[in-house]
Design brief:
Distance between the termini: 59 Å
Order of helices and strands: HEHEHHHHEHEEHEHEHHE
InterPro entries: ATPase_V1-cplx_csu, Vac_ATP_synth_c_sf
Number of helices: 11
Transmembrane segments: 6-29
Largest sheet: 4 strands, antiparallel
Keywords: Hydrogen ion transport, Ion transport, Membrane, Transmembrane, Transmembrane helix, Transport
Bound molecules: 2-acetamido-2-deoxy-beta-D-glucopyranose
Strand order of the largest sheet: 2-7-1-8
Family: Belongs to the V-ATPase C subunit family.
Shape: elongated
Strand content: 5-15%
Radius of gyration: 35 Å
GO cellular component, one term: vacuolar proton-transporting V-type ATPase, V1 domain
Number of strands: 8
């Protein structure tokens, strides 16, 4: 065995391990990025049975082509109501959907903000019903306790709207209280640092730097540029009369400035400031006061304590109510699928809702296959031709708005709450 090689290896093993672990975490990161967070929630009319509708879709998209992984999306027997009500609801549910979507993202991004330097833990804190978001979605179960299906569709939508509206309002109050606290603390902390020209000087000086309780004398604090130190030392005694000789002391310095004391007669203090300024020596207003000094330090530690005290309950509130919002959001999607399916496919209620997790590389193929399966459901979409028809078609007055239109009921659900702004 070559000893030199062995020694070399041992000496560099740490570096090699670092490189290796960087490399693997990079790969893990890239895989996470590649994992699609987009799902397609669709519905199609029941064939002879709904099970058959499901099998047909699953056969052509998943089993034969690996275009997607599919899940049955279970929607309970909801109350249909009248056609008029359904048409009205269709519009309102669209608005409710984007409202709940927005609040859900807001709660998630505020949680990220509150976590500050632990922001990398955001993803694992975003859960629905104590589980993974994808699992909640793919195994969706209507929450009968929260959203009783004996109620009309309109009432269920109202329950969700009120609940999420309350969360939105409380988020505004809670975040503004916490943000105020945070920025007061930041401001105070900023004053503890920064240039000697602006920063708080209290914790740089000590009692013995100052002449105290003198009827005639006072001690000033002067900020002197580094290039002016020798100028200061040679000349400060001559700036006015009645300066105590040898009274200047360098108390502190930063990259650009030094902080000097000088003791003189009170009655020349103003004149001294004036002459000092002419030579670019800046006198800082400062009175040594132990009581105030302690109060300042107390204020910071009080703010730090307050912030720590609020952090835990706030994070808990955000986590729980993120889950509430996310679950409410998926229920809105379920309501939308139900209403649109009844409007499009008619009564009696007979449709199968299905959740597709598209394989990222094959979304276009998947779209084509869905069009082959369901293109016949809408004659106007069919006229546009086989492949062109499923580009965005805006149908005014039908409440589809800017959304893409397809011959089948379709809603996109993106569960990425961390990166996407969508
Ligand atoms: C799905 O495929 C299986 C065999 O792979 C077949 O037995 C079944 O009839 C198909 N179902 C439909 C509805 O096409
Ligand atoms: C969720 O938010 C609502 C509305 O602000 C609030 O009443 C409820 O207590 C919150 N849940 C938790 C566990 O904090």
């Amino acid at each position: 065995m070559n000893i030199v090689a062995l020694v070399y290896l041992l000496e560099h093993i740490e570096m090699l391990i670092t490189i290796y672990s960087c490399f693997t975490s990079l790969i893990i990161m890239m895989n996470k990025k590649r994992k699609m967070s987009e799902y397609w929630l669709i519905s199609a009319p029941g064939d002879k049975t709904c099970q058959q509708t499901w099998e047909t879709l699953n056969n052509v998209t998943s089993k034969q082509n690996s275009l997607s992984i599919n899940y049955k999306f279970h929607i309970p027997d909801l109350k249909v109501g009248t056609l008029d009500q359904l048409v009205g609801l269709s519009d309102d549910l669209g608005k409710l959907d984007s409202f709940v979507d927005q609040v859900t993202h807001k709660v998630a991004s505020y949680l990220g903000e509150v976590l500050e330097d632990q922001r990398d833990k955001l993803q694992e804190n975003l859960m629905a019903n104590n589980g993974d978001l994808a699992v909640y979605l793919t195994h969706f179960q209507w929450d009968m306790a929260k959203y009783p299906i004996k109620q009309s569709l309109r009432n269920i939508a109202d329950i969700i709207s009120k609940q999420v509206g309350q969360i939105d309002a409380d988020l505004k109050t809670k975040s503004s209280v916490y943000n105020n606290l945070k920025s007061s603390l930041q401001n105070m902390e900023k004053k503890q640092t920064g240039s000697l020209l602006t920063r708080n000087l209290a914790d740089l000086v000590r009692k013995e730097h100052f002449i105290q309780d003198s009827e005639y004398l006072t001690t000033l604090l002067v900020v002197v540029p580094k290039s002016g130190f020798s100028d200061w030392n040679q000349n400060y005694e001559k700036l006015t009369d009645m300066i105590v000789p040898r009274s200047s002391q360098l108390v502190s310095q930063d990259n650009d400035y030094g902080l000097f004391t000088v003791t003189l007669f009170k009655k020349v203090a103003e004149e001294f400031k004036h002459h000092a300024r002419e030579k670019k020596f800046i006198v800082r207003e400062f009175t040594y006061n132990e009581v105030e000094l302690a109060a300042g330090k107390n204020e910071i530690s009080k703010l730090v304590t307050d912030k720590k005290k609020q952090f835990g309950p706030l994070v808990r509130w955000l986590k729980v109510n993120f889950s509430e919002c996310f679950c409410a959001w998926i229920h809105v999607k379920a309501l939308r699928v139900f209403v649109e399916s009844v409007l499009r496919y008619g009564l009696p209620v007979n449709f199968q809702a299905m959740l597709l997790h598209p394989n990222k590389k094959n979304t276009k193929r998947l779209r084509d296959v869905l069009h082959q399966l369901y293109g016949h459901l809408d004659s106007s979409a069919q006229q546009g031709g086989a492949s062109g028809a499923h580009d965005s078609v805006d149908i005014p007055g039908l409440g589809f708005g800017q959304a893409e239109y397809f011959p089948y009921v379709y809603y996109k659900i993106n569960i990425d709450m961390v990166d996407s702004k969508a």
